[in-house]
Design goal:
By secondary structure, this protein is mostly beta strands. 5% of the residues lie in helices and 53% in strands. The strands form nine sheets. Strands 10, 34, 35, 38, 41 and 43 form a six-stranded antiparallel β-sheet that branches. Strands 12, 13, 15, 18, 20 and 32 form a six-stranded antiparallel β-sheet that branches. A hairpin with a 7-residue loop joins strand 16 (198-206) and strand 17 (214-223).
């Protein structure tokens, strides 16, 4: 009897265990997953297998690849995942799989069907071997007799290779004689670096004075491995002329320390020289201000898209923007802080100022814009870079001449890109001011750049060389210095100082009267073979001139090993159009790299005409 009861107990326990296990199996069912789904492109009339490389599975049922169903909008007829679309256009694909328990998941992709074309032919190959003589714009090197040094334009700069600096500062110099001046204030910036710490004197000599006299100068200025401006300011009382001199010969700042002096065997590189002529005066005429003491209603808003999460609120008399999460896609434009300028408009050609205090818990870069609240970049008065250090309150001030008339202006910060490792942020804004600048103050700036294509502009007379570079400091931003040249059949772009905003280090093909012309009714494939002295990333854009509507928008991860990138347009042009090719390198990572040289081995454009 006891044995029977024991057996019954065991059977009962076993049945309960099986029942519980069965219950457990009913409550735990992993959803299937689909992998390998991606956007596709095919030419009309060509068969495509949209299931190639796509798989599905789950933990309970194993391989479910054979169960994947594909649907298309507009409708395509698939047989075993294959279809032959005859009509060009965009098709949205939905991949769905259902497991044995009825659990379904879907993934999505875009199929781009291009028009039927002829075989691709070479449309343009850039020749980096032709005539690309530089223009010194009047600047010349002087090396005293018996001094072991050379000074010449090469590799996009004025370069002094100095074996022995001689005995005096003026025995090695770069100079510009006969520069006309008038009653004005002047500022000169010499962007220089050296392979070893050395010194320079920068002097503005008065050519009209008897004997030796100067308008001003700066002495014992340090040049080291980091490119930076050597700056002098001087005032001229009447019309005349000056000789600007950058003396690089032997300088000993402290006679009591003879060891601290100009070294031997070093190289000084001067990328560019900027001369500002400032006349007249002006004053601020404020038309709007807000210290947020009464809250932020209608005074500051925040928009977050592409997966970002952000909000704005009043905080101790200021406006606080809390970013809980940055975007999962998109870019710098994914999160926007908007400060409308109510009852104000902006007039093209008028000079304005903006100013506000800002603090960021974590460092933040981005874009600062004055543009239309409703139409954004389509009606933009001005564009600036934005760089806010972590934990430090700074005052942002900009004076600008409006490039467009704007009826509904807003001060807008686009700050979607976080610093490395940053996942959230708190940004505080206070003391916003906006108004007109009135008076007759005028600043004229001339950039003397020693690159292969003239004074930082495209070579308008030679369509074979439509290249130039724009760098952030060209428009007086804090960062961005670089130059370009051609050598041994290749195009080189050396970034001497990286900017944190993408357009602060920009190489451009096509500008002004020398665009890149692409013909109608064709697709284009651009093939770029390139390498760099350090691994560096950039954005590549093929953009119509005069607007922002990129036909190609791609990323390039350039390495120290030669690599070929291939990008193909997916839309044809209705008419022949003028384009610019943009390589935009600026980023926080670029700024941290120091000097880096990008070497373009070849750039080819292939054309596929629509049949």
């Amino acid at each position: 009897m006891k044995k029977m009861r024991k057996v019954l107990c065991l059977l009962l326990s076993l049945s309960m265990f099986l029942a519980l296990a069965a219950c457990g199996n009913e409550t735990v069912n992993n959803k299937p997953t689909i992998t390998g789904v991606k956007d596709l492109t095919v030419q009309a009339g060509t068969e495509i297998d949209v299931l190639a490389g796509v798989a599905a599975s789950d933990a309970e049922d194993g391989d479910l690849t054979a169960m994947i169903a594909v649907e298309s909008t507009p409708v395509l007829t698939f047989k075993n995942g294959k279809a032959t679309p005859e009509k060009a256009g965009t098709y949205e694909l939905t991949y769905t799989v259902t497991d044995k328990n009825g659990e379904s998941v879907s993934e999505y992709a875009t199929l781009t069907v291009t028009k039927k074309t002829a075989e691709a032919v070479l449309y343009k190959e850039f020749d980096f071997t032709g005539d690309h003589a530089v223009d010194a714009k009047g600047w010349a090197a002087y090396i005293a007799e018996g001094v072991a040094a050379t000074g010449e334009m090469k590799q996009g700069a004025f370069v002094f290779d100095i074996t022995n600096p001689g005995e005096r500062d003026d025995q090695i110099k770069l100079f510009l004689a006969g520069l006309a001046v008038k009653a004005a204030d002047y500022k000169v910036k010499v962007w220089a670096k050296s392979t070893a710490k050395t010194y320079a004197h920068v002097i503005a000599r008065d050519e009209n004075a008897e004997g030796w006299a100067t308008f001003g100068g700066a002495w014992n200025m340090v040049i080291d491995e980091t490119i930076k401006p050597l700056e002098i300011n001087f005032t001229v009382g009447a019309e005349g002329s000056t000789e600007l001199m950058i003396n690089l010969g032997k300088i000993t700042p402290n006679p009591d320390n003879a060891a601290d002096t100009t070294p031997e065997n070093f190289t000084v590189t001067i990328d560019k020289i900027e001369i500002y002529e400032i006349t007249g005066t002006e004053v601020e005429v404020p038309v709007y201000s807000n210290d947020f003491a009464n809250g932020i209603d209608n005074a500051l808003t925040v928009d977050a898209g592409d997966g970002a999460s952000a909000s704005a609120a009043a905080d101790n008399g200021a406006a606080k923007v809390t970013i809980d999460a940055y975007q999962t896609s998109g870019g710098v434009w994914s999160t926007k802080i908007n400060m409308p300028l109510p009852e104000n408009s902006i007039e093209e050609g008028q000079k304005y100022f903006i100013r506000f205090d800002i603090t960021a818990t974590n460092g933040q870069q981005g874009e600062l814009l004055v543009e239309s609240g409703s139409t954004a970049h389509e009606n933009r008065a001005k564009f600036f870079g934005l760089d806010v250090p972590a934990g430090e309150t700074i005052t942002i001030t900009h004076v600008f001449t409006a490039e467009k008339t704007v009826a509904d202006p807003v001060i807008r910060m686009q700050i979607g890109n976080p610093n490395a490792g940053v996942t959230n942020n708190v940004i505080t804004i206070d003391n916003v001011a906006f108004g007109k600048m009135e008076g007759d103050k005028e600043t004229n700036k001339n950039i003397y750049a020693f690159m292969a294509f003239g004074n930082n502009t495209a070579n308008a007379t030679n369509p074979n060389f439509p290249w130039f570079t724009f760098n952030g400091t060209d428009e007086d931003n804090d960062l961005g210095v670089g130059t370009i040249w051609m050598e041994n059949g290749k195009l080189f772009y050396r970034i001497d100082q990286g900017g944190k905003t993408d357009w602060h280090n920009k190489l451009v093909c096509g500008f002004g009267d020398n665009p890149l012309v692409l013909e109608a009714d064709s697709y284009y494939t651009i093939e770029i073979t390139v390498k760099a002295s350090k691994n560096i990333s950039c954005g590549f854009f093929l953009n119509p001139m005069g607007s922002w509507d990129p036909r190609l928008s791609e990323g390039m991860d350039i390495t120290t090993e030669e690599k070929t990138f291939t990008f193909t347009t997916t839309d044809t042009l209705v008419t022949d159009m003028n384009f610019e090719m943009l390589f935009q390198f600026g980023s926080e990572a670029t700024a941290a790299l120091g000097e880096v040289t990008i070497e373009f081995v070849s750039i080819k454009i292939y054309q596929s005409k629509v049949q």
